[in-house]
Amino acid sequence: MKRDVQIDAIRGFCLVLMTISHIEGPVNKLTFEFIGFAGGAEAFVYLSGMVAGLVYCKRSAKISESALDRAARGRAWTLYQYHLGAYAMVLVFVALLPSLASPLRGYAPLFFDNVGLAALLGPLLLYQPLFIDLLPMYCVFILLTPLALRQFKQGREWHWMAGSVTLWLLCQLGLNDLLLANTVAKIVEPQFGFSPYSWQMIYFIGLWVGFRKYRDGRLFDNYHPLLLRLSVSLVVLFFTIRHTIRFMRWADRTGSSLLDGVQHLLPSAETLQLIAEITFKLDMRPVRVLNFFAVVYVSSYVLERFKPLLEARWLIFIGQHSLECYAYHLPLVYGIRVFEGNLFDPTAPSTPILLTLITLLAVASLTLPATLHQRYRAAKAAVSQPPQPARAPLGQPSEHPARVDSRPREAAETKRSSTSAEG
């Protein structure tokens, strides 16, 4: 199956959104959850599942089940190394320069309160500071991927998906809080972000869609007109609610009187609290799930019908190196937060302009890890490529045997193709 570069472009777009959303500033206020109660993180996890479905389905047709399990363990180990590298960079910085790193206290309090315990719990994935919480759960999801795909191929895809949805439902009823209270909370106050027990549903739905796309050649067999209109209506509704709340908060913060004449039409404080609860991001609450998959359905229709991202070369490029770009952006946004907290006066007129410039530069710098990884992969492929036999002059017999064993070369090409596809 030919690689779908539109998926790479969407992953690149998600990387841009996440980088912006993790940097406080004017651009963040414009783009954060712009489409409604959904953002780049949900799309990134969903697409990671979809790409895993495509890649591992392709591999499973060529290698044994045990080899596929080994490939998944190798990928999980790579993810773990990237996570540990980002975690260690921030931890060492805080340990060496705690006063300079003080703006990060709200992001990773244990780094300041007990650096030794943080150094112990981090590699065990039992402490995850703000933003550094996506790769650990992704490690677990990848390890489960071969098992899930085997279930799909054996016709038990609905059994697996029913189990995934049931686990998500149990978390909505408090399972996640119960597990934390009886495990991690006995050691340290949890600093978890995303609940893996809830977010696994997003990943495995993406994995199932990737499996279906590999098997059938497209995301959906057809787009039902009624379902498409319903999805569009939900997207518009949630967009309107999200930005009405945002405008209300802006008016309250600035003391604006623009909404005075329509106060009776606006949601009450109790309603706002209810909306916050049913759209809570970390536990992937029901309305957020509904909003996200309405966006997915509409977006997939637009992408299949109009293919608008085929020429988004830069987004495709960083999307093909998404792991490296994501890991790079973690210490980057922590460093920007330190820079901002120590040097910027929030009340200065120039601060929004400087933060906008820093945000744009941070986004542009995603080119760096993508380029370095591309060159590393090319150099590694060149080393694994066996030397070509010298050509004999025309009319003279070759000094090399006529029959050359091509198996090592074919194996190297297969391995390089698989690595490139998983990107």
What does this entry show, briefly?
The chain is mainly α.
- Which class best fits the helix and strand makeup? mainly alpha
Strand content: under 5%
Q: Could you give the order of the helices and strands?
A: HHHHHHHHHHHHHHHHHH
Low-confidence stretches: 398-404, 406-410, 412-421
Helix % is 55-70%
Largest sheet geometry: none
Overall outline: globular
Number of strands: 0
Can you count the helices?
A: 18
Give the rounded overall mean pLDDT: 85
* Rg value: 24 Å
From the N-terminal CA to the C-terminal CA, the straight-line distance is: 16 Å
Characteristics of this structure?
423 residues; mainly alpha; 0% strand; globular; disordered C terminus
Provide a descriptive summary of the structure in words.
With 423 residues, the protein is an all-alpha fold. Helix content is 69%, strand content 0%. It contains 18 helices and no strands. The chain has helices at 5-21, 26-31, 40-60, 65-96, 109-113, 115-121, 134-153, 157-172, 175-181, 196-216, 225-254, 269-278, 286-306, 313-319, 322-343, 351-364, 367-384, 407-422. It is globular, with a radius of gyration of 24 Å. The two termini are 16 Å apart.
